[in-house]
Amino acid sequence: MSTAEEPAVPVGREADGSADAGAAASAAAAPETPVPTKPGDHGTHGDPGYQGRKSPYLRRLKLIEGQVRGLHRMVEDDTYCIDVLTQISAVTKALESVALGLVDDHIHHCVHDAAASGDSEELDRKMDEIMGAVRRLMK
Asked: With a threshold of 0.70, does the pTM exceed it?
């Protein structure tokens, strides 16, 4: 991914990482709502961590989808076992690469925002989420 594809400053943030004045004013005026607790909720910070890099992820997943279709054809065409296994390894590594990028985005966006919020329960929830995801990836 080139740096031209990534925004220099995340959406809704100033260059120093603080929330913009409009968001701070609306957050101060908004009544406190409970933090979502079910999986998939973004908590108190809004967009998912990969939002600024969604296009490259979608492009990469489309390429992986093509690799998987190629695997299907290889098996249909009775391709040699080792060649199929080699391609499976390539697909696995490609998916792991996407997963590692998402872990990085989650830590730098979601966990970072939870830490900056000062809400220790939200931070603990985000840390538990990322550790659960890492455990699943390592199985």
From this structure: no
